[in-house]
Amino acid sequence: MLEDEVGDREFLFRGIVINSWDFENDRPSSATFKDSKGVSVDRDGGRTEEDCINHLKKVKDFHAICKVLTMDVRELNALVLYKPISENIYHSEIHDSTERITLRGKKPNRIRERSLVVYKK
Amino acid sequence: MNRKTRNKISTTRSNYGDVFVLAALSFIAADSTSNSPKILNTSVEQSVNLPLATPTSTRFNNANRYSLDKLRSNKKILKNLANLKSNWNGYNGEPIDKSIIEKTEHLISELDFQPQVFPTGRGTIQIEYFKDDNNLIEVEISEGEQFMYKIEDGSEFEGDVSVEELSEIISNFYA
After folding, report:
1. Which end of chain A has less neighbouring CB within 10 Å, N or C?
2. Among B119, B122, B151, beta carbon nearest to A19
3. Is the pTM of this model over 0.95?
4. CA dihedral (B83, B87, B89, B95) positive or negative
5. Per its UniProt entry, which superkingdom is the organism in (chain A) (predicted)?
């Protein structure tokens, strides 16, 4: 059973499709972190990095997968919320703030800056 | 004037031309103190000496400036974005409306520098310019606005900008 609150030390994993990959700079575009209903991520929930990557690879044939530390996201005054769904007990979301769900402006860029690519085709 | 006379005049003109070419060449050869390179032409009509200017401004070195190839490539990317289906990114990504694709195509056609183009999961398009982490521009194009995030030498700006303002901001970014 996972804690209701995502721990500061947990990593958040996000798959990146080829359309969102910046080939000129070999990294994800910050557009990756611009969803309409909060940015969906998988919390690690105590799993190894390899388990997290394999779990995401079953969902889709992603071009790359990155991870960002929950604490780094919270330092940007964004929210990390645990939102499990039936198909994915690790599902969580990054929201801009308590007032707004969608990230824009500097936050998507900063999250991209702080994220590490842990898998790439 | 009969044909014989005309031919004679024509020959005389040709001789004058040769003399003028020789005089021009002598003048150029004698001008040995000049540092600027010259093009030596043998015809009188094209005897203007053009200095071979070497561009010194770094603005000439940006491959994306006035790049028709890059514009074509971006238009191709936009065309492909029109085919994105619902859930294209594995996170319920929304398809991109044709009007936003057309708006972006019009916008990038107006720009001196070609950006990188990416779809977002919320049905908008993002264009990006990147020098380094402290110098970049991201513009999210939606139906109603062009929302820009810019950081230049550490100084940040966020807000809606018009197409005209955007064009100027991007040109200044590379000036």
Report:
1. N
2. B119
3. no
4. positive
5. Bacteria
- The model's confidence at residue B163, banded by pLDDT at 50, 70 and 90, is confident
A58 close to B (CB below 8 A)? no
Q: How far apart are CA A63 and CA A28, in angstroms?
A: 10
**DSSP secondary structure string for all residues of chain A:** ---SSPPTT-EEEEEE-GGGEETTTTEE-GGGG--BTBEEEEE-TT--HHHHHHHHHHH---SEEEEEEHHHHHTTT-EEEE--BTTBTTEEEEES-SS--S--THHHHHHHHH-EEEEE-
- B interface with A, Cβ–Cβ below 8 Å: 81, 84, 88-94, 116, 118-124, 126, 128, 130, 133, 136, 138, 140, 147, 149, 151, 156, 158
3-state helix, strand, coil in chain B (%, to 5): 40, 20, 40
What pLDDT band is residue A106 in, cutting at 50, 70 and 90?
Answer: very high
Q: Which of A112, A99, A113 is nearest to A41 (CA)?
A: A112
What pLDDT was estimated at residue B67? 80
**Quick one: tokens of A26?**
């070999």
Q: How many CA atoms lie within 13 A of A86 on its CB side?
A: 0
Q: Rounded to whole angstroms, how far apart are CA atoms B112 and B99?
A: 22
> What ipTM is given for this predicted complex?
0.94
- Scanning the structure block, which residue is given the tokens 């005309």? B6
Return contacts of B10-17, CB within 8 angstroms, 24+ apart: B17/B44
Q: Token pair of A60, please?
A: 């889709």
Q: Which residue, among B82, B134, B129, has the nearest Cα to B108 in the 3D structure? A: B129
